[in-house]
């Protein structure tokens, strides 16, 4: 049964998507509908069986712009490029040459002329830039405003700091309705905005009306990338039976339960109780466990959703939570200290870290990820320069993380695509160096091709992929 409210919301979102060219061609019926979720509030549900990798919906950002960050990179605030950027003489925003006379910038520029009320914004353009996303809501048309108004928002003093910056630091003048509305938009952004990578830079946020209606689960069944029109492309990670709710993840997938729960509580104000959160070993990944001090076993929380003690899975000895936290925060703090220094990271990972945590702990995984993207990319470590042992190390780390993704039931996702591509690159480099007998070489060849095809399939709509992968994608179309 679909209630009146659900009906209204479905038709509001559907006409919004139609307006912005987000209908999927060749399909008579949508694969999704919005319904009341057992988790509370609305959710998105499959209207028929959906195959892994199938395109479920496209979504257009009703608001898109910089995140509220102090160290934003110098990008054009309109098209996000980095070429020929200069400060606009009127409003101070950074724009590229062609955008400086574009309709989109001129609309913003005029709005700012009106709001600045004689104050000079040129020296404060950084502060202005980080508040630009909510400010853009003042330029939305009536229909889009309705869409924004239909989304859920967060209450609380930690939200709406952009309004403070706009009024107190930048001295912009708003009517009281505008100010109230801006505050509401900030709370909607905090509740729903996605991090959007544009031009390989992650410092943008986008409000995707349909995307924001999907609920969270720590093992999502859909994944998304952003295409060159900044649309969100949402596809199935795994097989999704008809009437199943579609889940996204609001946290980093490879974080352990403690980190995820803390993040969700602080930023999204809810406690996740999904099957992964309830499982002490997180589906056998041991992402948050630490080593037992008495035997080679691993400590796991007795009850992960409560502040329980931890117990060894081998000798059953019990360790107080405080002790476990001490170890976890110690290894976590080391992580933040590393730059892209291969030797340092590798030594820490193999000599120190494995004495404290299993090698699938989230910190170990994070360091392995760093190493995967140093080897083959950083100066002195380009793929053709790597000694065989480092090439094999990179390959092994890719496989380790892919294994964890499989245990997490993740199916297709962006990280899987990226790792499959790195594995393909490693195998191709190995093929150049080694003489295999015929049988090995056949297995190698199949393996390599499968990885490339998987990477291409997962990332074909992603506008942020490397040039070399883009070329492979184009060749395969
Ligand atoms: Zn531009
Ligand atoms: Zn301007
Ligand atoms: Zn969960
Ligand atoms: Zn033990």
Automatic annotation (TrEMBL):
Residues 30-251 form the SET domain. One of its GO terms (molecular function) is N-methyltransferase activity. CDD domains: SET, SET_SMYD. Pfam families: SET. PANTHER family: SET AND MYND DOMAIN CONTAINING, ARTHROPOD-SPECIFIC, MEMBER 4, ISOFORM A, SET AND MYND DOMAIN CONTAINING, ARTHROPOD-SPECIFIC, MEMBER 9, ISOFORM A-RELATED. This is SET domain-containing protein. The lineage of its organism: Eukaryota, Metazoa, Ecdysozoa, Arthropoda, Hexapoda.
């Amino acid at each position: 049964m679909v209630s009146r409210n659900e009906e209204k919301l479905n038709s509001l979102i559907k006409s919004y998507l139609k307006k912005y060219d987000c209908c999927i061609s060749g399909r008579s019926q949508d694969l999704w509908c919005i319904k009341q979720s057992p988790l509370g509030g609305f959710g998105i549900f499959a209207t028929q069986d959906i195959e892994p990798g199938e395109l479920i919906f496209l979504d257009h950002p009703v608001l898109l712009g910089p995140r509220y960050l102090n160290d934003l990179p110098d990008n054009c605030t309109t098209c996000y490029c980095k070429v020929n950027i200069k400060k606009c003489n009127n409003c101070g925003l950074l724009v590229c040459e062609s955008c400086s006379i574009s309709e989109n910038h001129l609309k913003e520029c005029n709005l700012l002329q009106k709001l600045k009320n004689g104050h000079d914004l040129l020296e404060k353009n950084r502060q202005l830039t980080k508040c630009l996303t909510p400010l853009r809501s003042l330029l939305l048309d009536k229909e889009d405003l309705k869409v924004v108004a239909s989304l859920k928002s967060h209450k609380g003093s930690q939200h709406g700091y952009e309004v403070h910056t706009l009024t107190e630091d930048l001295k912009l003048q708003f009517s009281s309705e505008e100010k109230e509305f801006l505050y509401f938009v900030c709370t909607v952004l905090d509740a729903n905005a996605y991090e959007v990578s544009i031009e390989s830079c992650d410092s943008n946020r986008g409000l995707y009306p349909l995307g924001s209606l999907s609920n969270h689960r720590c093992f999502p069944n859909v994944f998304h990338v952003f295409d060159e029109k900044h649309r969100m492309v949402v596809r199935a990670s795994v097989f999704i039976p008809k009437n199943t709710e579609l889940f996204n993840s609001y946290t980093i997938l490879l974080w352990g339960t403690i980190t995820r729960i803390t993040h969700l509580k602080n930023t999204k104000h809810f406690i996740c109780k999904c099957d992964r959160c309830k499982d002490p070993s997180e589906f056998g990944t041991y992402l948050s466990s630490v080593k037992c001090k008495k035997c080679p076993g691993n400590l796991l929380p007795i009850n992960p959703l409560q502040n329980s003690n931890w117990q060894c899975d081998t000798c059953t000895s019990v360790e107080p939570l405080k002790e476990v936290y001490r170890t976890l925060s110690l290894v976590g703090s080391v992580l933040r200290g590393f730059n892209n220094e291969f030797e340092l990271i590798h030594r820490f990972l193999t000599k120190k870290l494995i004495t404290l945590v299993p090698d699938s702990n989230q910190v170990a995984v994070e360091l392995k990820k760093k190493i995967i993207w140093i080897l083959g990319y950083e100066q002195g470590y380009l793929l053709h320069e790597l000694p065989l042992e480092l090439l094999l190390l990179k390959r092994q780390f890719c496989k380790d993380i892919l294994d964890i993704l499989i245990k997490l039931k993740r199916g297709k996702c962006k990280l899987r695509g990226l790792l499959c591509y790195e594995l393909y690159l490693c195998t191709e480099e190995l093929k150049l160096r080694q003489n295999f007998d015929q049988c090995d070489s056949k297995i190698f060849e199949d393996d390599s091709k499968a990885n490339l095809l998987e990477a291409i399939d997962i990332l074909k709509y992603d506008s942020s992929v490397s040039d070399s992968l883009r070329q492979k994608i184009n060749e395969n179309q």
